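Quick illustration, no need to memorize.
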Amino acid sequence: MFDLENLEEKISEIYNIHYLDVYRFLICFSGNQDEAEDMTQEVFIRVLKNLSNFNGHSTIKTWIFSIAKHVAIDHYRKKRFSSIFKEGYFKNMVSKEKGPTELVELSEMQKSVHEGISKLKPNYRAVVLLRGINEFSIKETAEILNCSESKVKVDYHRALIDLKRKLHIYVKEAIGNAN
């Protein structure tokens, strides 16, 4: 698929383009910066090892995120997290346009969303992170999760209902505030 003469350049380009998105996905999934860094490294090691197997049926981005999902699930299974997202992505988000009271309210909302997402089943969590946070299309999410578009729609719908129940708020507003 890739020209051997330009392979090193292509690998570097793929890494530079996709590193930050993969890292963000994994930090949302794990809630731990060190673990996300380790998993991101593992993703790109697997990408490097399997680049010759990339078939082009999906975009390189969805292929990489599919690998990231597998790395995250493997990590989750190995560690059997007791608590996810203790310190993480949402707590560090600060808006410079809001006043102190609004920042406290936003921080509390982010913490609630953060905790609610962490309590979802792993497959629901992955769908919410991909669709709601990373804004992948239904088709891209289906490719990453290796399932049908219908399953993505159903799981996303059920995850939002479950998240709404856990948060006792209107979920679309919460997801919007979490971005």
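The chain has eight helices and no strands.
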